[in-house]
From TrEMBL:
It comes from the Bacteria. This is Membrane protein. The chain crosses the membrane at residues 61-81, 113-135, 147-164, 170-187, 199-224, 244-274, 365-388, 408-437. Keywords: Membrane, Transmembrane, Transmembrane helix.
Length: 462
């Protein structure tokens, strides 16, 4: 059956393949050109991984570009295999992974540590997806520790920008102005009202952080913090040979087994924030599904685990990446959901919108004029991404706590995680929970910390 034959209330047509539902463009879903064009522009965010790889692993630009391109290809797997999402990085975990990797000297040892980390995370995700144990693993962790890990991720994101030698010292004016505008566009109640009153502002709001990146391209040269871009024509020249020779197990050999053991605490910390993305994906897909009764959307967390677990496992072998392979690019999922709500004429299928967007980002990564336009401010784009993520992680981390005691424990865990890493943060969190909660270690009891201002009848339902 082709996409045109889908009846009211049915799923988009697919080829069944075990837990997967294979869908091909133009056959099983209509290609959505507006989402494709937006993807061409938003590849800027994917490219922001390049300065991270250069800084952490000492990669040449062309080698880092090869990793970004490989990651982009794997992004396509989600919609092609039946996952109605726009995947992205595990953004909240990036500072945690950077902290972990910097414990090892730059060179083969640090690359081996990253390979072992990503491979462990991938295999762990596949195991949880195939057994359906994902929710049980996370729910078994006390809320104080979950809160502390997410808080720590937010703290680490901010620290990485403002620490001595951090990006703020290189781009103080650009980051200050761009972040100020970015927070206004993304989180301001005033701008939220403007979007509903003026369609122009509505379009700006749907573009996520892309308008901020365009502003940075202009501001950075004006303040002398980056050169004006030199536009080059043609296609990109990623260095796959340099990647596989110097940064993968093909050239460096298999990592020592001890690195798989030492990475376990940070892998677990990364998985905690990753699982938060899975829950957010489920909520956004449900919102889209309720808005369009003409199409049934099927999001299966276990299938998602299998896909991003396979992505991480594969990337650990052919191109280890500090951003990791995550289940969701939240900002763009929200943007596509909003367009999907406009009805079948605007977007026939959500799979079509999500897939077309990711085909667009992959096309943009290949086009040299786009890459060369963005190259001077990629470090700024990454700083903006991390600061925005820091804000979100701190907010989510606080809301993860169930009591004032949880908040106190979480604050200490977060601080220890930033200073000493996850290997110290988990034991400290466990010790504090045992000392404060004793036999009620796993109860996650709540007090009035988050409900003191609510009516009594509302409190009883919380």
């Amino acid at each position: 059956m082709k996409w045109k034959d889908r009846k009211f209330g049915e799923e988009s047509p697919f080829i069944p393949a075990g837990p997967f539902k294979i869908r091909l463009p133009f056959i099983h879903y209509r290609f959505e050109w507006p989402d494709y064009v937006q993807g061409l522009l938003m590849c800027a965010v994917d490219l922001a991984a390049i300065p991270l790889l250069i800084e952490l692993l000492g990669m040449p630009f062309e080698v880092a570009l090869a990793i970004v391109l490989l990651n982009g290809i794997f992004y396509l797997l989600h919609h092609l295999l039946g996952d109605p999402t726009i995947p992205g990085w595990i953004t909240p975990a990036i500072p945690l992974i950077m902290l972990y990797c910097t414990q090892f000297p730059e060179g083969p040892e640090r690359v081996h540590a990253l390979i072992a980390f990503q491979m462990t995370l991938g295999i762990f995700s596949i195991l949880l997806g195939s057994t359906g144990l994902a929710a049980k693993v996370v729910s078994s962790i006390p809320s104080a520790i979950r809160s502390g890990i997410i808080l720590g991720a937010g703290f680490a994101a901010v620290v990485s920008i403002f620490e001595v030698g951090g990006r703020f010292e290189t781009f103080p004016w650009t980051i200050s102005i761009a972040v100020g505008i970015g927070f206004y566009l993304l989180f301001s109640k005033h701008f939220s009202k403007l979007k509903t009153k003026n369609p122009v502002w509505g379009v700006v709001g749907k573009l996520g952080i892309f308008p901020i990146i365009i502003i940075a391209i202009i501001i950075a040269p004006l303040f002398g913090e980056a050169p004006w871009p030199t536009i080059e024509w043609g296609l990109i020249s990623p260095d796959f040979m340099g990647l596989w020779t110097n940064y993968t197990l093909f050239g460096l050999g298999f990592p020592p087994l001890m690195l798989f053991v030492t990475g376990i605490p940070t892998v677990l910390a990364a998985y905690i924030v990753l699982f938060g993305d899975v829950l957010q994906t489920k909520a956004l897909v449900k919102e889209a599904d309720l808005s369009r009764p003409d199409e049934k959307l099927d999001f299966n967390p276990n299938r998602a685990h299998l896909i991003f677990g396979a992505r991480n496992s594969a990337m650990s072998v052919i191109g280890p990446d500090v951003t990791m392979a995550g289940p969701l690019w939240a900002a763009m999922q929200v943007v596509v959901v909003q367009r999907y709500k406009d009805g079948r004429k605007a977007m026939d299928s959500f799979i079509g919108g999500a897939g077309s967007f990711r085909w667009g980002t992959n096309t943009g990564l290949l086009v040299l004029p786009i890459v060369s336009l963005l190259e001077p401010i990629l470090g700024i784009a990454l700083a903006l991404t991390l600061l925005i993520q820091g804000y979100v992680s701190v907010k989510v981390g606080i809301l993860e706590a169930r009591s004032q005691s949880d908040l106190g424990i979480a604050g200490i865990i977060g601080a220890v995680l930033v200073i000493k890493g996850a290997a110290w943060a988990f034991p400290v969190g466990i010790a504090l929970c045992l000392l404060i909660y004793g036999k009620d270690f796993f109860k996650n009891e709540s007090d009035e910390t988050f409900t003191k201002d609510l009516p009594l009848e509302t409190k009883e339902n919380v």
